[in-house]
Amino acid sequence: IFIFLLILTCDSIAAVSLPFKPRFSDKWRLASDLGISYASIPQFLSNRDMLTYNFTTRFGLAENREIFARFNGFFSEIKNLVDNSVIATRETEVDNISIGLNAQLKKEDMLPGILGNVELSLAGKIKPFLPFEDRRRIYFSKWSIGATLFYTSDPLMPVINIGYSFRPERTNQNVAIDLSDLLYVQPLLYFIVNSEITLYSGFSLNSWSNSYQNGQIQEMEKRELIFHSGVNFILNKELSMFMRLDLSQAYPVLTVQLTRQ
User: How confident is the model at residue 76 (pLDDT cuts 50, 70, 90)?
Assistant: First the structure.
């Protein structure tokens, strides 16, 4: 299976700007991001086309500090071959609404610079975990916290992204559900070819904890290793582009992203 993603972004968030220095919204000013991605996933006797989007509004509080609100949604179409006929099932919805904070915790000097972020899901659709569950909306369903460490040593720029996602216990029809939490570490190494081109490679290690139902383990903890390699291009003063290839045990993913700053 090969998936191709196309993402368009306006005024990208700080982490996406690396290694071209963090970018935040100005104090008391609004900025916005728009991302769109497409994936086509072939399966046995079926094919799934998925268009996802996210819209983020950011408001500057002070130098290198901002709050944001984010809306995520998708359009999905699944085509199944049944008795030599193609039957299409379509679904469109807002998948998640969240708020959060981005901040530069430390500027880069002799030691690495540090970016931090906190995000709370206000209203998100969940995947069914129990046989009688449907895809319903859950409020305050997930907390996420992350940090990015970066250091420039021309022509190299090492970057480490770390993060943790916590989903509090919920109850459905007197059944206590405690879904897995996620811890990830992503070391990357950028090589700055010139002022327009930067290469990078690295990997992500994702670790999920056990999932529980009424205190009993339903899904065991698991880990996933994904390798990344890519290239960034500066097209002009406002527009940049990157291409990235992700390799995991599941399938390769190619991402192309345009960023307007």
Answer: confident
Structure tokens at 6: 């196309």
Sign of CA dihedral 165, 169, 171, 175: positive
State pTM to two decimals: 0.76
Residues 6+ apart with CB under 8 A from 192: 19, 154, 155, 156, 157, 198
| Cis status of the peptide bond prior to 155, with omega within 30 of 0 | yes
Q: Which helix (H) or strand (E) holds 17?
A: helix 14-17
Asked whether 187 and 160 are in contact (CB, 8 A), the reply is yes
- Which of 30, 37, 31 shows the shortest CA–CA distance to 52? 37
pLDDT in tens, 141-175: 889 999 999 998 888 899 999 999 998 887 777 77
Asked whether the beta carbons of 5 and 27 are under 8 A apart, the reply is no
225, 216 in Cβ contact below 8 A?
Answer: no
CA-based torsion, 101, 13, 37, 149: positive or negative: negative
Q: Which helix (H) or strand (E) holds 182?
A: strand 182-192
Cis? peptide before 158, omega within 30° of 0? no
Q: For residue 103, which of 7, 238, 214, 13 has the smallest C-alpha distance?
A: 13
Q: What is the DSSP letter of 132?
A: T
CA–CA separation, 91 vs 121, rounded Å? 21
